[in-house]
Structures are given as structure tokens and as C-alpha cells.
Design a protein that fits this description.
5-stranded parallel sheet, Rossmann fold, 5 helices, alpha/beta
Amino acid sequence: MIWVVTDHHDTRRALVPLIAAKGYEVVEIECGDEVRKRLAFQTASLIIVDCGMPDSFDVLSTVRNEPRATPVPVVMFSNDDTDLKEKALLKGANAYVGKGTMDWAEMIETVVQLAGFPGDANTQ
């Protein structure tokens, strides 16, 4: 299962259906608190986090410090910002995708790269 974590309703409504249309099981998560609660009883095959959330780097830290979630790939995204990209990768993200013009092709490519193709053992 892929978790899309962003406090922007419009971003969730754009990105979640795109990922689901590719055959992945995906859920939308509004905040870091919900990620922390879910980690207590669930893991994801991939976590996508919006750097624009106030606690986005806390979410990344939580995932990286939770033993069951440590191996889960994390993709962070935001505006095309070299400093944010560098910070995300240094803090443990597996990838960073710039929002750019809101063309999510790069995000979908990154999802496939990190989560495998839908139906693979590691995508559910």
C-alpha cells in the first residue's frame, strides 16, 4: 500500500487517483500525526510526503526511526527547490520529485521504480 501524505486537499485529489489508476493500492493521509498512528499497526510499500507540510521532515524522521518502517522507501515532493531536494535526500528520503507544472509523470515513474509494478509482492 502506498501512502500519500499531504495537507493539500487538491494535491491528494490529483495524485491519489493517478497512482490508483496504475493499479496500486493507495491511501491519502492528511498529516504527520496520522502517519505516526498508522505506523503503530501498519506499514506501507512506499510513502510519498509533501515537503510543504509543516511537519514533513518530522514525518521522514519518524519513518526512518521506526524499525518496521525503516526499509520503506520515502519520496518527498515540493516545488522545484534544490535546497529542499538536498535536505530531503540528506535526511533519508529515497527520492525527491519537483512539482514543476503539476505534471505527475516523474512522480509515477518514481513510484514504479521504488514500489515495483502493481501486483509485485512489495506493492501491497
